[in-house]
């Protein structure tokens, strides 16, 4: 059996608007059932987050909102094996057009390091 890579997460909010965590879950991991993310993202970068390697493929999903749930900013990250990574960002809701999400993945010997970006459009 091939081990699925660890995921190290960096969250960057480049907006002056705070983001509030709406939901967060891990699906399928043999080594972790939860993912601890900050309840509030102010402007800046947050590190020290992530999931250990797993004997099974897994998915990490989380949603932040800038406005009490009227707009949802989500990332779904699927990992499979030592190098398999798929990231799906989504902006939905009332003010979704004012937000842009992005990601910057980097594969290292310890697993994936991914910087997830939240930016307000000018």
From TrEMBL:
This is Uncharacterized protein.
């Amino acid at each position: 059996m091939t081990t699925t890579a660890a995921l190290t997460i960096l969250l960057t909010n480049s907006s002056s608007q705070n983001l509030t965590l709406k939901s967060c879950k891990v699906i399928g991991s043999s080594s972790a059932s939860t993912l601890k993310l900050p309840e509030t993202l102010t402007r800046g970068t947050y590190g020290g987050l992530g999931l250990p390697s797993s004997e099974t493929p897994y998915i990490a999903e989380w949603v932040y909102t800038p406005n009490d749930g009227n707009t949802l900013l989500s990332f779904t990250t699927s990992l499979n094996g030592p190098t398999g990574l798929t990231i799906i960002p989504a902006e939905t809701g009332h003010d979704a057009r004012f937000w842009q999400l992005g990601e910057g993945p980097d594969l290292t010997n310890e697993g994936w390091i991914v910087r997830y970006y939240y930016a307000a459009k000018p």
